[in-house]
Every structure is written in structure tokens, then in C-alpha cells.
Amino acid sequence: MEQQTDTSEERVREDGSPREAIADLGARINELKEYGSYYISAKIDAAIASVKVAGLYAALGVVALMAGVAVIATAAVLLVVGLGGALGALFGIGWLGNIVIGLIILVGVGFGMRAAIGAMKAKWHHKTVEKYESRQRQQASEFGRSVHDRATAPSSTARE
Length: 160
Fold this sequence. Notes:
flat; 89% helix; mainly alpha; single chain
């Protein structure tokens, strides 16, 4: 003989009393809350998993970047050592080639840094000048004159 479990829908249909219907409603609300909580928990776990995967890829990128920098640095060292050795062989004194190559590199880096700093300062200056020229154009269109016009105007007209 097969035993069937009595669901709340069957109880309400059989019994039909309001008290049973309210008890069934409470059970269904609790069930709905549990399903909602389950859904939210699953969404949060999915977001956390996505963040973890993004972190893994970021770490992998950092490792790859470090490996790339190490390869480039190794190649640069081998080039400099090779140039120093070749120049030393040319001079007949091994250590002199290393000193000359080191000096050339340091002077080149110094000039490169000086040029880069000068270019950055010129760019910043240009942007600042453009900013204030733009504001003066805006003032002239809005007020009919700019702060520059007021500053260079004779003192008798400056008080208008």
C-alpha cells in the first residue's frame, strides 16, 4: 500500500477552515523567505567567485610582468657587459671598456631624464595657459570683458 504525504494544499481543500488556511499561508511565507535567501546567497557566492577569478588573473598578470621585466633586464645587462668587453678588447684594457660604457649609459640616462622632465614641464605649462585663456574667453563672452582686460585697462575705466 502506497502512503501519500498530505500537502498543505490538500489539507486546505479538504478542511477548508480559515485557521488551516492561515497556518498554511505562514508556512508558505517561510518557504518563500527560504527560497529568497537561497537565491541571494547564490548570487553573492557567484559575485565572490568572480572577484576571486579576477584576483587570480591579476596575480598571473603581475607574475608575467615580472618575468618580462626580468628578461628585458637580463638582455640589457648582457648587452652592456658585451659592449664593455668589446670596448675593453679594443683598448687592450678590459676594465676600461666597462667604465667607458657605464659612463656613456649614465650620461645618456641623465640627458634623457632632463629632456623628459623638460617636456613634462612644458606640457603642464601649456595646459595651464590654455586653461586660463579658455576662462578669459568665457569671461569675455559672458561679461563683455575678461580679467585680463580689467587688469590692463586704465584705472579710470576699471571702476565702471
